[in-house]
Amino acid sequence: MSKELQRLRRVYADWDSRLVESNVYSPFNPAYLFMVQQRQRETLKLLRREGCMSLADKTVLEIGCGSGKILHEYQSYGVSVTSLHGVDLLWRRVKDAQNKFRNIFAIQADAQHLPY
CB 62: neighbour CB atoms within 10 A? Predict the structure, then answer.
């Protein structure tokens, strides 16, 4: 494992431990809610601009999928659950995604060496 990969794992683990009891990623936090809605608006605007008005026949891979919330959003946009794939560096985040959204395929992997 590279030194950079080890460093990233430490940074993410530290970040997770500091935010355990935080509401930073809560929809009840107005700043977080605004950020989520802005990302959704921009994503849908980009898809419309590219002429992509349906995602039913698309496959989505999210690098850094965390708990799977964004993959779940893509399901609400019409992507089949069997076409949703997530990769995260941390095993705990992968397990979180798998537990929250049982049908989403998520694996632990370094994005530099994807099994796709």
Answer: 20
Distance in angstroms (rounded) separating the CA atoms of residues 107 and 34: 29
Q: Which stretches of 70-114 are assigned E, i.e. beta strand? A: 84-88, 105-108
pTM for this one?
A: 0.81
Q: Is 62 left (phi over 0), alpha (psi -120 to 50) or beta?
A: beta
Beta partners for residue 85, in sequence order:
61, 105
- Specify the amino acid at residue 108: Q
Tens-digit pLDDT string for the chain (116 aa) = 789 888 888 888 887 777 767 788 888 999 999 999 999 999 999 999 999 999 999 999 999 999 899 999 999 999 999 999 999 998 988 999 999 888 889 999 988 888 88
Return the residue matching tokens 């460093």.
7
Q: Which residue has the tokens 């099994």?
A: 115
Tell me which residue has tokens 């419309």.
Answer: 48
